Amino acid sequence: IDYLKGQDFVNGRFGVVGFCMGGGLVLQTAANSSDVNAAVPFYGSPLSASTAAQVSAPVLSFLGSRDGISASDYETMHAALTDAGVPNKFQLYDGAQHAFFNDTRTSYDEAAAMDAWQQTLGWFETYLGS
């Protein structure tokens, strides 16, 4: 983020998106940097409620119901975001597996991936502008 802040082509608003481990890193970055203006983790490790309370950026999370990551842990995280006044949404895709967005894997779920990407673009448009 520090590098991007010095670039002429950057409007000063930063969105982060990540998948799997990268999704968890998105959440950690949002919890530890006030420079993040929108965060979109795909099936990453959710934050604890106490860490989620440190987030100020709007968070849109995606998870499949057949992922090994607990949906209830995501619900707890999102409840903490709501309690902290942070705009957030948790989208759980029924029947989708871990890595449902990765079209090179058997877990790919085209409908979930397409919907999630459209929501991601909308989230960034809403919170980052153009």
Shape: globular
For the residues shown, what is the average pLDDT? 97
Intertermini distance: 18 Å
The CATH superfamily name is: Alpha/Beta hydrolase fold, catalytic domain
**β-sheet strand percentage:** 15-25%
CATH C-level class is: Alpha Beta
The biggest sheet amounts to: 4 strands, parallel
Task: Tell how many strands the DSSP assignment holds.
Answer: 4
- CATH level-two architecture: 3-Layer(aba) Sandwich
Helix content: 40-55%
Within the CATH hierarchy, at the fold level, what is the topology? Answer: Rossmann fold
Question: DSSP helix count?
Answer: 5
Q: Give the domain tally.
A: 1
Class by alpha and beta content: alpha/beta
- Order of secondary-structure elements: HEHEHEHEH
Detailed description of the structure:
The chain has helices at residues 2-5, 21-32, 49-52, 71-83, 110-128; strands at 14-19, 36-42, 59-64, 88-93. By secondary structure, it is α/β, with parallel strands linked by helices. It has a single domain, classed as Rossmann fold (3-Layer(aba) Sandwich). The longest helix has 19 residues, at 110-128. The protein starts with a helix and ends with a helix. The mean pLDDT is 97.
Summarize the structure.
The protein is of the alpha/beta class.
Question: What would the keywords be for this entry?
Answer:
130 residues, alpha/beta, Rossmann fold, four-stranded parallel sheet, globular
Please give the structural blueprint.
Blueprint: H1 2-5, E1 14-19, H2 21-32, E2 36-42, H3 49-52, E3 59-64, H4 71-83, E4 88-93, H5 110-128
Parallel strand pairs: 1-2, 2-3, 3-4
